[in-house]
């Protein structure tokens, strides 16, 4: 398997770099400066390096001798700068952050430094970008797991790197239509792009017959969904949901992962012929591209501005920034090396397709994944260079002891410097995180609390105004609204205090073995009277006893917030159900309502801790995202997960997942 941490020695470039000829070496001041910066060698160290000048003179003479062995003469043509190799990268979509790494490699000169002149082509409506590579119109392309189908069909494609470790491919619908599940959508019109077989796997996993479904060609334009020309369109969850929610309204998403289909997303690929004809060029392109992706992940704002200035203004800046954040969650650059390829996962994806009848069950993946062969990267002149290399080695031995001592000292100095830089980076990260939390808290205080206290002041002023005569019924009505506003403000302030204590480490987590069902019954039962007053039916189903290691106060706060929210946004006549279940490894507390629901963009914002206006409650309450942000944080510190999904029957389903404790039940706290 390809080791993405390897060191690339460089694609031939510069004066005299034609294969089979000696290359004249000229060290420019700029290159010397870059080398010093990369090695961290300071002036004092460089002075030490210059001490044994006889050694470097000997090595230089040996290099000249090696060159003389390899090439008897140097013509004028051989010292001219070598022209850049022209190659084309075919994208699979229009210009956007999805391809940020390639834009970064182009802008930062990573391609040029490796001797490449790269043209980046976007996809066009009706085009087939992956076929462009197979047909030789482009040397490289951005592909999907459909490459497996192409390989099985005899097209010799080769995967070089996987950029998106999880696929963002999703079906998007307007939340205002009457389609609430994938089976209803099967009767509608769906706009899809070429090579989205992952969706076919999703449909098959849901028991749908794709031959009976109505698919239309993709136009890459959300206006088709907005106008109703189609009922759903394939999109990336990193992109269109934000744009649509901002310009049109809430969306509903059907994701393959909901049907158990979790495939790779975008990958970089080429063909066997390109790889065979020029393996060094392929290696150079791969290394430059991955350098670009690493840069893009560290500097997303800069690349967003680059896209707007150079490639496309099709999307607004905030859309691209949203895409950058969501892409990072799927690329996972902080978890695995950018471009990481797992052959075993490709095998599992192939087996999944084979189980659906889309691939042969005995399909071999030999040659499908790029593997670096050192022999393939040896220059043609290498056999001739052996004699010169031998001479260099003999002379180098004379200075070996000195070099070893110097390298040991240099290594020690670099390790000390790296440790200091690491400590500084860690402290910087902590300060940035603290500052970020402060900004979020200030935003909430300035935005949400002001909204909460507005009705308090208004109704209090109306009741206190002596010139405003009120009948008893109106006084009672204003009093109820004043009470609701006050209670809502009190809840938010309590949540803010709890949130601040947790984020600053002042609220310690005390884990104990607890029956989650009993805790849910006790916490949710407090809201029986409130539910009755609202005309909402509250069901509590604690399930069989199950022992979970948790902080009782924190998880009780989570359940309290979720039940309160569910009641608040469920109209009269609706239902709220609190249930607990166990599957042996995990325990789940599920709070489901038949209320107004939440669109995906709103879910993303409140779970990230950003300030967000929720809808108005059934009794006029003003909602904020503070409670949900607190719930997410408390569940995380209890080693759990909070998820939010649409209820197929309308409303929202909140699920708190915690690990079942593997300890004696005698330690249970009920």
Helix and strand topology:
Layout: H1 29-39, H2 43-49, H3 53-70, E1 85-90, H4 100-107, H5 110-113, E2 116-121, H6 129-134, E3 140-143, H7 147-152, E4 157-162, E5 169-174, H8 182-185, E6 189-192, H9 197-205, E7 214-217, H10 223-226, E8 232-236, H11 240-247, E9 251-254, E10 267-271, H12 272-277, H13 279-298, H14 300-311, H15 317-331, H16 343-355, H17 382-398, H18 400-464, H19 472-503, E11 512-515, H20 516-525, H21 528-534, E12 537-541, E13 547-550, H22 552-568, E14 575-582, E15 586-593, H23 600-607, E16 613-616, E17 622-624, H24 626-637, E18 641-646, E19 652-659
Parallel strand pairs: 1-2, 1-3, 6-7, 6-8, 12-14
Antiparallel strand pairs: 3-10, 4-10, 5-8, 5-9, 11-13, 14-15, 15-19, 16-17, 18-19
Report on this structure:
- This protein is of the alpha/beta class and 670 residues long.
- The chain has 3 domains: 85-167 and 264-367, D-Maltodextrin-Binding Protein, domain 2, CATH 3.40.190; 169-259, Periplasmic binding protein-like II (D-Maltodextrin-Binding Protein, domain 2, 3-Layer(aba) Sandwich), CATH 3.40.190.10; 435-667, Histidine kinase-like ATPase, C-terminal domain (Heat Shock Protein 90).
- The strands form 5 sheets. A 5-stranded mixed sheet has the order 2-1-3-10-4.
- A hairpin with a 5-residue loop joins β18 and β19 (652-659).
- α18 packs antiparallel against α19.
């Amino acid at each position: 398997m390809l080791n993405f941490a390897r060191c690339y020695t460089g694609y031939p470039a510069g004066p005299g770099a034609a294969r089979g000829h000696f290359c004249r070496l000229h060290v420019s001041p700029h290159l010397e400066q870059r080398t010093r910066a990369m090695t961290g060698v300071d002036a004092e160290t460089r002075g030490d390096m210059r001490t044994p000048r006889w050694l470097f003179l000997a090595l230089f003479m040996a290099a000249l001798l090696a060159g003389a062995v390899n090439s008897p003469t140097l013509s004028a043509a051989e010292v001219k700068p070598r022209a850049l190799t022209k190659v084309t990268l075919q994208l699979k979509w229009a210009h956007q952050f999805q391809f940020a790494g390639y834009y970064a490699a182009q802008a930062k000169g990573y391609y040029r430094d490796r001797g490449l002149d790269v043209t980046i082509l976007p996809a066009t409506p009706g085009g087939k970008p992956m076929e462009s590579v197979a047909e030789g119109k482009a040397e490289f392309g951005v592909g999907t797991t459909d490459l497996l189908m192409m390989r099985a069909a005899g097209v010799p494609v080769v995967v070089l790197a996987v950029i998106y470790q999880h696929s963002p491919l999703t079906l998007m619908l307007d939340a205002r239509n009457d389609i609430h599940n994938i089976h209803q959508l099967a009767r509608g019109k769906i706009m899809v792009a070429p090579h989205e077989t992952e969706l076919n796997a999703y449909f098959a996993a849901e028991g749908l017959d794709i031959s009976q479904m109505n698919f239309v060609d993709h136009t890459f334009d959300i206006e088709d969904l907005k106008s109703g020309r189609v009922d759903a369109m394939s999109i990336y969850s990193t992109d269109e949901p934000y744009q649509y929610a901002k310009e049109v309204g809430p969306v509903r998403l059907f994701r393959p992962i909901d049907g158990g289909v979790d495939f790779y997303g975008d990958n970089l690929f080429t063909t066997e012929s390109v790889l065979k004809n020029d393996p060094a060029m392929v290696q150079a392109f791969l290394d430059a591209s991955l350098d670009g992706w690493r840069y893009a992940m560290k500097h997303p704002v800069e690349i967003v501005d680059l896209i707007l200035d150079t490639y496309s203004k099709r999307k607004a800046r905030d859309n691209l920034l949203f895409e950058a954040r969501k892409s990072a969650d799927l690329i996972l650059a902080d978890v695995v090396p950018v471009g990481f390829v797992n052959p075993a996962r490709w095998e599992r994806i192939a087996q999944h397709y084979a189980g659906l009848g889309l691939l042969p069950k005995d399909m071999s993946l030999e040659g499908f994944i790029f593997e670096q062969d050192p022999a393939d990267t040896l220059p043609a002149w290498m056999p001739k260079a052996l004699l010169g290399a031998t001479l260099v080695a003999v002379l180098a031995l004379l200075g070996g002891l000195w070099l070893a001592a110097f390298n040991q000292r240099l290594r020690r100095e670099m390790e000390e410097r790296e440790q200091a830089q690491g400590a500084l980076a860690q402290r910087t990260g902590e300060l940035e995180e603290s500052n970020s939390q402060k900004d979020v808290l200030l935003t909430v205080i300035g935005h949400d609390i002001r909204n909460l206290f507005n009705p308090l002041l208004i109704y209090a002023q109306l009741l206190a105004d002596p010139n405003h005569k009120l009948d008893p019924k109106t006084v009672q009505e204003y009093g109820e609204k004043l009470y609701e506003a006050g209670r809502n403000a009190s809840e938010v302030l309590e949540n803010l205090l709890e949130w601040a204590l947790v984020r600053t480490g002042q609220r310690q987590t005390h884990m104990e073995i607890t029956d989650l069902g009993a805790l849910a019954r006790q916490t949710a039962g407090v809201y029986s009277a409130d539910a009755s007053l609202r005309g909402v039916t509250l069901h509590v189903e604690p399930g069989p006893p199950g022992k979970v290691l948790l902080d009782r106060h924190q998880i009780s706060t989570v359940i309290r917030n979720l039940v309160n929210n569910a009641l608040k946004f469920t109209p009269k006549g609706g239902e709220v159900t609190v249930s607990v279940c166990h599957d042996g490894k995990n325990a789940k507390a599920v709070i489901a309502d038949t209320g107004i629901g939440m669109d995906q963009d709103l879910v993303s914002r409140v779970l990230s801790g950003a300030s967000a206006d929720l809808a108005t409650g059934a009794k006029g309450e003003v909602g904020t995202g503070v409670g949900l942000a607190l719930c997410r944080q408390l569940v995380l510190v209890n080693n759990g997960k909070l998820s939010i999904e649409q209820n197929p029957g309308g409303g929202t389903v909140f699920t708190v997942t915690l690990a079942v404790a593997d300890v004696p039940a005698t330690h249970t706290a009920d």
